[in-house]
């Protein structure tokens, strides 16, 4: 059904906005549309383990997004795509296997998923378009880009560690993957490990439970030439993982291997991080990516338009760049909305069309403040504004407070330090609150449902 095919990109885009970035990259991004037949669609799954996780955790999410677009009775089926099987005819991993851990130490050649070009050693996939050539460099990212490229080329004057610091949606994942792709594509090394801090933690736990911890240590300490580790803040409070990672980094540093970290906070600002790991994270070059300026936003939009085949007039591109100035994802959202409305409804893509699409985004954004989020949380949880900023450690106060801090970080451009002070909390406590909510969101339990409800209210302006 052509209508459903047209909305597929929008469905994935909306899901991306509701999930943590690493969860989207891990579970949703590889999924592709395989078959459409009236009210039935078939989606791809890389292997049986993914299929099980998609059915158990993400099927309702897909159905919900299709429902928002008017497809209420759609039936969704996941199928292991033949494109994910190995050239040698090797069968899929058993459902219980963790996707980042090979079943044997002997690597097997595996074909790429649709839209993905390079497989890193631990099973993570390189995302199409995340190369140095595809990165739009501006004053906001020039230093980070140059440092990343120099590290990939081995020209960092003895420094083999890089820390990419940026808020979500500004390009740190793009640059991280660009380093790995450059090294693999130029045959500098094939032993590139790209993982999130959550991946590393889960792999270690899996290895401990299955008595394969020695293989885990050998893989990261002796079989890795380049370690790319994202979302460092996730390690807050995970003492055992921190100790293991600190030891792993010692091995890699002694062997002069390359290490790229990324996070939304400096190591000194991440709470519950032990001194051993903190000291190693601060050994290298720290580069920060800021929000792009107007000229850079215009160039980003033009590059995205060309990549997606959109024909957007220059005045419309410039209008979008003028109105949306927070991050690259917001730019993509506005660009896609304008192109989709023009193509699906047959409208001319002009300034008036762009205004109608962006009005909702910009008007809602103007109404979203830390104070408005605080009021929403207090109303929904029947607590007072005095309670939410009080020293109280009662669960009925603490959880809403953490959720309010998380939502303030997500929907406002206020720095974490200022958000924390709005709730009478230290900077480190605010980061801990954000991490606590992120961890619980992954469980897809009650808090996930509550946050989905609250996010929908905020995004629709019902504050």
Summary keywords:
10 strands, about 55% helix, Helicase, Ruva Protein, domain 3, GMP Synthetase, Chain A, domain 3, three-stranded mixed sheet, alpha/beta, five-stranded parallel sheet, about 475 residues, 4 domains, Rossmann fold, 19 helices
Describe this structure in words.
The structure is a single chain. By secondary structure, the protein is of the alpha/beta class. It folds into 4 domains: 2-84, DnaA, N-terminal domain (GMP Synthetase, Chain A, domain 3), CATH 3.30.300.180; 116-288, 3-Layer(aba) Sandwich (Rossmann fold); 294-366, Helicase, Ruva Protein, domain 3, CATH 1.10.8; 370-459, DnaA protein, C-terminal DNA-binding domain (Chromosomal Replication Initiator Protein Dnaa, Chain: A), CATH 1.10.1750. The chain has 19 helices and 10 strands. Helix 11 (314-323) runs parallel beside helix 13 (351-367), helix 14 packs antiparallel against helix 16 (395-411) and helix 16 packs across helix 18. The chain is globular. The two termini are 37 Å apart. Mean pLDDT is 81; it is low at 83-120.
């Amino acid at each position: 059904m052509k209508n459903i095919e047209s909305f597929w990109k929008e469905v994935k885009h909306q899901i991306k906005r509701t999930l943590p970035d690493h969860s989207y990259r891990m579970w949703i991004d590889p999924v592709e549309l395989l078959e459409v037949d009236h009210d039935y669609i078939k989606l791809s799954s890389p292997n049986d383990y993914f299929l099980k996780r998609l059915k158990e955790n993400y099927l309702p999410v897909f159905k919900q997004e299709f429902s928002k677009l008017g497809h209420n009775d759609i039936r969704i089926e996941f199928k292991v795509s033949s494109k994910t099987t190995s050239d040698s005819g090797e069968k899929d991993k058993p459902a219980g296997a963790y996707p980042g851990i090979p079943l044997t130490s002997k690597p097997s050649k595996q074909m790429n998923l649709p839209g993905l070009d390079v497989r890193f050693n631990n099973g993570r996939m390189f995302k199409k378009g995340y190369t140095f050539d595809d990165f739009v460099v501006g004053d906001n990212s020039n230093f980070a880009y140059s440092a990343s490229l120099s590290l990939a080329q081995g020209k960092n004057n003895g420094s083999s560690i890089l820390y990419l610091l940026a808020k979500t949606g500004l390009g740190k994942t793009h640059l991280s993957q660009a380093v790995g792709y450059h090294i693999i594509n130029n045959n500098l090394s094939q032993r590139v490990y790209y993982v999130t801090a959550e991946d590393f933690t889960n792999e270690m736990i899996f290895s401990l439970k299955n008595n394969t911890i020695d293989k885990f240590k050998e893989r990261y300490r002796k079989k890795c030439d380049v370690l790319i580790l994202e979302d460092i803040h996730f390690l807050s409070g995970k003492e055992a993982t921190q100790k293991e990672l600190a030891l792993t980094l010692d091995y890699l540093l002694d062997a002069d291997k390359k290490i790229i970290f990324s996070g939304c906070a400096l190591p000194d600002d991440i709470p519950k991080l032990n001194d051993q790991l903190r000291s190693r994270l601060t050994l290298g070059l720290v580069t920060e990516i800021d929000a792009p300026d107007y000229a850079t936003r215009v160039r980003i939009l033009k590059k995205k338009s060309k990549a997606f085949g959109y024909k957007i007039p220059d005045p419309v591109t410039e209008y979008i760049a003028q109105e949306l100035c927070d991050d690259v994802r917001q730019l993509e959202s506005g660009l896609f909305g304008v192109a989709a409305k023009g193509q699906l409804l047959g409208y001319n893509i002009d300034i008036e069309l762009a205004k109608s699409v962006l009005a909702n985004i910009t008007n809602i954004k103007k109404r979203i403040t830390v104070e408005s989020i605080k009021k929403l949380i207090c109303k929904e949880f029947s607590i007072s504004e005095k309670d939410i900023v009080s020293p109280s450690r009662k669960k009925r106060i603490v959880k809403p407070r953490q959720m309010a801090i998380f939502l303030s970080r997500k929907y406002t451009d206020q720095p974490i330090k200022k958000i924390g002070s709005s709730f009478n909390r230290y900077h480190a406590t605010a980061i801990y609150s954000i991490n606590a909510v992120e961890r619980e969101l992954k469980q897809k339990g009650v808090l996930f449902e509550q946050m989905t409800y609250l996010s929908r209210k905020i995004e629709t302006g019902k504050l």
